[in-house]
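A brief tutorial aside. Many learners find it easier to grasp structure tokens once they have seen a single protein encoded end to end. The record that follows does exactly this for Regulatory protein TetR. Read the sequence first, then the structure, and try to relate runs of similar tokens to stretches of the chain.
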Amino acid sequence: MSTVRLDDGAVLDAARACVLDVGVRRTTLADVARRAGVSRMSLYRRWSGIDELVGDVLTRELHTLTGDALDGDRAALVARVVEVCEALRRHGLVRKIVDVDPELLLPYVLRRRGRSTEAIVDRLTVAILAAQAGGTVRQGDAGLLARFVLLTAQSYVLSAGAVAADAPAAGLPGELATLLDGYLRP
């Protein structure tokens, strides 16, 4: 009996497409399997359910947007965080989840951090340590600073639409940059 190796990339692409079509709650592993051209049982061997699969899709998307490293001084760090926040705020998958299935975000906003969040905090911590060594970011616990940068960024990505209704959207990135720069400034 031969075993066909599951192409995670194709499955993640199929899951992404399904979520963009109908949202997370209305996407099933059967839908993803059909779209990916694999058996549903193959998916269950790899993922425990749709939430875990969508978590992997989001991890891949966030990794693609954030890249591997945040290098440079405070100005470069702030600029990159703002750039990623703007990309996430307009990202189709993130928008779909915020618009259709916002309740899925509550555990990550209120109680816990996921794998993607941990990876981002780790990268921010490394970048903050480097900027502290260069004297462009204030001294303090780099991990704590990274968590507060993430908290600010997360709030911006998920809530900027509420502010944009009353303020020019074009000014929002500048305000985020001002806030982050002031927080990190020595």
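Self-check: The radius of gyration is 19 Å. If you spotted this yourself, you are ready for the next section.
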